[in-house]
Design goal:
The structure holds 2 protein chains of 2 kinds. Chain A is of the alpha/beta class. Helices cover 15% and strands 26% of the residues of chain A. Classes of the chains: A alpha/beta, B alpha/beta.
Chain lengths: 215, 228
Amino acid sequence: MNKWNRDQIAQKVALDIPEGAYVNLGIGLPTRVANFLPPDREIILHSENGILGMGPAPLPADIDPDLINAGKEPVTLQPGGCYFHHGDSFAMMRGGHLDICVLGAFQVSRRGDLANWHTGAPDAIPAVGGAMDLAIGAKKVYVMMDFLTKTGDCKLVDTCEYPLTGIGCVDRLYTDLAIIDIHQGQLLVRELADGLTFDDLQRLTGVTLTYQPAH
Amino acid sequence: MINKTVATLEESVAGIFDGATVMIGGFGTAGQPAELIDALIHQGARDLTIVNNNAGNGDIGLAALLKAGRVRKIICSFPRQSDSHVFDSLYRAGQIELELVPQGNLAVRIQAAGAGLGAIFTPTGFGTLLAEGKETRHIDGKDYVLEYPIKADFALIKAHKGDRWGNLTYRKAARNFGPIMAMAADCTIAQVNQIVSLGELDPESVVTPGIFVQRLVRIQHQPAASAA
């Protein structure tokens, strides 16, 4: 069986983003999606710190400390892009103006609850940032994550054990083993990694899946 | 003649009192008014409540204020970062209080204060740890959490250009919290790279109208620190 690697997952997400979409890519793994957006589509990237039309990293000589992304890495602005303050930026997020956001996750429940901000460990310093606004605000919430943790537990669960980021907010999962839609209480498996059968996937999780390939 | 410009950083932070709530602009170091924070450290006010998106980076600016032991409580959305070691050790030692707020709720609570609202209902955080114990309401098919405004005695912000009436423009993504914090504080203090004559700022491009600004001070040099 060939698991999809992180770039392959990012590429699958990127190919599903349509022309004209306003998109926020969360910190970490989702940032990679930007590398695979089809160049023939105009897709506008939003950054929570007040940028629409965010472009790729600059050349070292062009780094501007006033122009960074949510992960605080230097970025550029595309022609037509603009800046705005945090009030407007989060109105875009919370107010349902973004078409898609892509987030990472510790766990996702079968009802689409998302846990991605806090492990809940007593010594952990919690940090939430814009995760809760993105989770409940974007029209579509896509999650990129491994299907299993490093210790082999499935991250798609009946009920999240980690503190929640948002309730019933996840629409689709892009994992290393499968793409799964969360739709009206059902988990619809749309695509499986090469060599993996639906039964293989079902055996890895305690939640009930339905095989309904996209094509 | 109205003239909100002050000549020195020392004058700009005069009167910030012990126990004050101080908003500090910036997202990481972009838009962080490092020189005003240094002036505040020098000024000596303590027991402060700080409102910022983060809790300091490296050892400069906000991190230096924390390190100097002047901050009793921080209200922020994202304290833990790769270079937040000053905050991390204070927090673990129980020497600083943290109120963690989802970033959009932080922004809208600041806006609510500036706009004179009594409270707001926000969908962000509903059903999570960060809404525990808070009043909720079901409105038009959706669940909301009641959140109260965050007001400040002072706001320290970084803008790009300003005039003596306090009108401000910003530079790129350094704008972030500046405009909304300026509206939510009794006394907003802006550091700017350039002070221009009245009328020189395009009125169509003024981001913060001068009514929200009480003092502004020009910073002589682009700080090397902000490139970190």
